[in-house]
């Protein structure tokens, strides 16, 4: 009888499990979570990372949010804009196009007809330039931010943390979390960058700050 390599490996695993029964493993969770940076440093670091990822960055004070968003959407010729149901509608006071409020009943293929989507964000890591979405009402379901070719994401500087550990502590573990680090992109075997393969081709980030 011939024994295959797979059967040999599985037999060894079974033998090892019999000799050392599985037991609870104490995993250390004392991550560094207290690092801080001044507002100006967090803004500069986040902007640098986002630009490096080829994302558009627009900085404004809170009162200019509608104006800046309208300018971004106008430059991209967005006529049909998708938004999550809990988005702050005052952000759209200067936008003149059609607004489509997403819901779980909207078939995903219909999202492809949108010119872009506008959402808020949960938390953002300056060190990695990563934006976290947690499916809150002002961010919506994951499909809404993955199907349209343009994602305009509003980030409040107060939600920007220096590093990943600080960002994770602000998240709710039971919420579905999407991590965004620049526009969707991938590379083939020849390292040719292709954008828009797994999500939006363009990411525009509007950072609100009172600095």
Automatic annotation (TrEMBL):
> A Pfam family for this UniProt protein?
LUD_dom
Q: What is this protein called?
A: Lactate utilization protein C
Q: Gene3D superfamilies, per this entry?
A: NagB/RpiA/CoA transferase-like
Domain called LUD: residue spans: 47-207
Superkingdom of origin organism: Bacteria
Query: Which InterPro entries does the entry mention?
Result: FTHF_cligase-like_sf, LUD_dom, NagB/RpiA_transferase-like
């Amino acid at each position: 009888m011939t024994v295959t390599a797979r059967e040999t490996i599985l037999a060894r695993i079974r033998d090892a499990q019999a000799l050392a029964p599985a037991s609870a493993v104490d995993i250390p969770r004392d991550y560094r979570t207290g690092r801080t940076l001044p507002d100006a440093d967090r803004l500069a670091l986040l902007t640098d990372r986002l630009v490096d990822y080829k994302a558009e960055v627009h900085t404004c004070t809170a009162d200019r949010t509608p104006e800046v968003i309208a300018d971004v959407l106008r430059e991209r010729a967005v006529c049909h804009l998708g938004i999550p149901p809990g988005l702050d509608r005052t952000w759209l006071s200067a936008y003149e196009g059609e607004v489509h409020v997403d819901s779980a009943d909207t078939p995903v293929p219909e999202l492809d007809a949108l010119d872009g989507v506008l959402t808020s964000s949960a938390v953002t890591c300056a060190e990695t330039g990563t934006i976290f979405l947690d499916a809150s009402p002002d961010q919506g379901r994951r499909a809404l931010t993955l199907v349209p070719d343009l994602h305009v994401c509003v980030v409040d500087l107060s939600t920007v943390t220096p590093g990943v550990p600080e960002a994770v502590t602000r998240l709710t573990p039971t919420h579905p979390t999407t991590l965004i680090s620049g526009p969707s992109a991938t590379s083939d075997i020849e390292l040719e960058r292709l954008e828009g393969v797994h999500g939006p081709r363009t990411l525009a980030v509007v950072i609100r700050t009172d600095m």
